[in-house]
Amino acid sequence: MSKGKDRAAKARQIVADQRAAERRRTVTLWTSVAVVLVLFVAGIVGYTVMSGKDEGKLVTPSVAVDEGTAFAVGSGPVVVDVYEDFMCPACGNFETTSGPTLKNLAGAGKVTVRFHPVAILDRFSNGTEYSTRAAAASAAAAQEGKFTEFHDVLYANRPEENSDGLSNAKIIELAASVGLTSDTFVTAVNEGTYQPWATKVTETFSDRHYTGTPTVVVAGQKLDNPTTEALTAAVTKAAG
Amino acid sequence: MLRITMAGNLSGTDSDYPKVTMETSRQTRMTVAWPWIGTAARLGLAAVWLIAGALKVGDLAASARAVNAYQVMSYDTAKVVGAVQPFLEIALGLLLLIGLSTRLTAVISALLLAVFVAGIASAWARGLRIDCGCFSSGGELGRGESTAYGVDIARDLAFLALSGLLVWRPRTRFSLDGVLLGEK
């Protein structure tokens, strides 16, 4: 009789199916546990890397204004906030086209320019973090009363993105060319004294929900397109 | 996978073994094709996460700023999210690459992508001018650069479709799942 054999085959099949299902359940359970663990560990790694970043001791330049995050040029009634990265090409263009106007307005006592040297382009200097080094060096220059001169010479020698940026030695050499030769300055550049401060300026910038450089804010109003005309018009309007 | 059905004794032979009957050829073709389509989806999604994570992991501060640019959380929270996200993306990519618990990793991928789509849509709706930071450390959008929210969302929806496919059909070739389940 084939009926008995048929039943036996069916029974074997059912047992095999059950075993397979059991195995699937076990595998699914443990692989799921493994996945959750892996993702959890990855998250912890990210958190640890972030909080473990040695940001060093924050040294705020005593001459800094705006909660210690900017350097003021001029003392006019209209406040113009300029957020710039020393490596950013658009900032270079802004300096070339609108820099003189800005200085004239400050010189004429119409505006107070507050320069915020932010460092958002560190990843474009082959790991040398030029943006942070340059911003930190500008703080050292400000402390010596030479912010504007140093700022201008750095923009005149702005390195292209995805280059190594200027070395500390080159930064010191350029500073010397504008009369900035003090040991305090040289030491601050070499030791990166103000680098944690540059990070703080950048975080303040992001915290204010600014995302790009140059960001130009006239009397609290961000200019959508910071051309010289827009800048002059905004200053005139703010002056009333 | 070929479906094994009980053919019983219909053929009149006295075999102990169930017969393998071919279903209609079109169904068979799909049965054979699905694991391969799934494999392509799995490896594609793995590449997406690995690339997205790798492009961010080198500059966690920038990643934090990209998250903060969405203006949906405090800067301190954005800092944590920005640091954790690239590592999660890389881990997800690796898990998909080896094919461990494909269905679960696909579900998690889908959830993450849904959050990203919601974030981009919200930035769009609020009129923010930001780079989505999907495949970069984002945030900064240069002068004259325009936003690409529509394209970003369409792309994320395509990735979401890949995830959905894997949730639906998680059995793929060359996967650790397959090895553990004793499949070929």
Q: Can you lay out the helices and strands and say which pair or pack?
A:
The complex is a heterodimer of chains A (240) and B (184).
Chain A: H1 2-52, E1 71-73, E2 78-84, H2 89-107, E3 111-117, H3 130-143, H4 147-156, H5 168-177, H6 183-191, H7 195-207, E4 215-218, E5 221-222, H8 228-239
Parallel strand pairs in A: 2-3
Antiparallel strand pairs in A: 1-3, 2-4, 4-5
Helix pairs in contact in A: 3-4, 3-6, 3-7, 5-6
Chain B: H1 25-57, H2 60-68, H3 75-98, H4 102-125, H5 149-168, H6 176-180
Helix pairs in contact in B: 1-3, 1-5, 2-3, 4-5
Pattern of helices and strands of chain B: HHHHHH
CATH third-tier fold name of the largest domain in chain A = Glutaredoxin
Tell me about the biggest sheet of chain B? none
Report the major sheet of chain A: 5 strands, mixed
Question: Would you tell me the overall average pLDDT of chain B?
Answer: 85
Shape field of chain B = elongated
Count of DSSP strands of chain A: 5
Strand order of the largest sheet of chain A: 1-3-2-4-5
Q: What's the domain count of chain A? A: 2
Q: N- to C-terminal separation of chain B? A: 10 Å
The radius of gyration over CA of chain A amounts to 29 Å
**How large a portion of the residues of chain A is in β-strands, by DSSP E?**
5-15%
Helix content of chain A: 55-70%
**Most extensive interface:** A-B, 42 and 52 residues
| Total beta strand runs of chain B | 0
Q: Spell out the CATH superfamily of the largest domain in chain A.
A: Glutaredoxin
Per CATH, which architecture of the largest domain in chain A?
3-Layer(aba) Sandwich
Shape type of chain A: elongated
